[in-house]
Every structure is written in C-alpha cells, then in structure tokens.
Amino acid sequence: MDPFATLGLERTYRLDLRAAEKTHRELSRTLHPDRYVGSGASERREALEKAVLVNEAWRIVRDPIRRAEALFTLAGIQVGDTHEPKPATSLLMDMMEQRETLGEARGKRDGKAVEKLVLEMSARKTAIEGELAAAFDVARGDQGKLTLLVAKLGELRYYRRFLEEASAILDDLGTPS
User: How far apart are CA 166 and CA 177, in angstroms?
Assistant: First the structure.
C-alpha cells in the first residue's frame, strides 16, 4: 500500500500534518459506514475496506518513523532490524550512557533529571527528523542517496525508544510527560 497515494499526498517526508489530517477526516467521513446503510453488501464492504486503508495510511504518515519506512519501501529499499546497517559505535556508547543516567534518575526518583533527559533526547529526535526531511528532499528517487539515509532511521528509532522509556518512568513517578 502507498499511504501517500491513499491519502492523495505527495510522497515526501516533509508533510503538512494538519492538512494531511484534514484530508484523512474528509475521506473518513466520505467512507463512514453510516453513509452506506442503504447500499448493497458489496458496496458496504468496499467502503469499509477503503476506510480501513485510509485509517492505516493516516497512522503511517503521521508517525515519523513509519513515514520514513514507507518512503524507503516505496523506493525499493528494505528497512527493519535485519535490513538496516549496524548503528555507529559512538551512538551505541552514547545511548548506553544516556540509559545509565536515566536509570540513576529513576532509582533516585528524580523526575526533574528525567525531564531534562527527555528535553535533550527530544531535541536530538527533532534534529534527526529535520535531517531526514532535508535529505529526502535532496535524494528524491536516487536510491544510492536514499540508502545512506537508512542509518538515520535507525538513530531515530533509538531516540524514540529512549523517550518511550523515559515517559514510562515519568508516569511511574507521577510526573506528567
């Protein structure tokens, strides 16, 4: 499935998510089962299938990682744990240190320290998303250039996992994330 085509969007990482959400809502409204109550079974089934595709397309394009995965897949580049290059040692060491610091903050029940780590990691995540957007713009269709971007996707995954872990810690501490 091409989530961009399903929603009538340009195949790009840099999306206007508000406009994409509006398109999603309009398509969802058009395909809503209540509009097909008086229709035949096959027409109702077809509308439901299209609605499912529209919803899945929206879930993909609104998520920065899944959006990048879709763009890579549409360009013929496999992504995922078994297809992506091993992360740089420096990234792995840094993430180990950050996780250790996060663990220490959790042990001390220091919500402020966790929040500080969240801000730092969120800034990194935002920076990588910006790099991906710019690089996708430049690499349009050039599979060689696109292949080089796959490592950035892996880095983005590390940041997301860290932020999810930190968010769970903040929830445990009763601190809003």
Answer: 9
Query: Rounded to an integer, what distance in angstroms lies between the CA atom of residue 23 and that of residue 151?
Result: 31
State pLDDT tens for residues 112-149. Answer: 999 999 999 999 999 999 999 999 998 887 888 888 88
Q: Quick: pLDDT tens for 48-67.
A: 899 999 999 999 999 999 99
What stretches of the chain adopt beta strand conformation (E)? Answer: none
Class of domain 3-62: mainly alpha
CATH 1.20.1280 at 89-173, yes or no: yes
Provide CB contacts within 8 A for 62, sequence distance 6+: 17, 20, 21
Asked if residues 152 and 110 have their Cβ atoms less than 8 Å apart, the reply is no
Tell me the C-alpha distance between 92 and 118, whole Å. 18
The domain segmentation of the chain, as residue ranges, is 3-62, 89-173
Nearest CA to 66 among 144, 146, 136, 156?
A: 156
Neighbour tally for 3: CB within 10 Å: 23
Q: What angle do CA 67, 69, 72 make, to 5 degrees?
A: 110
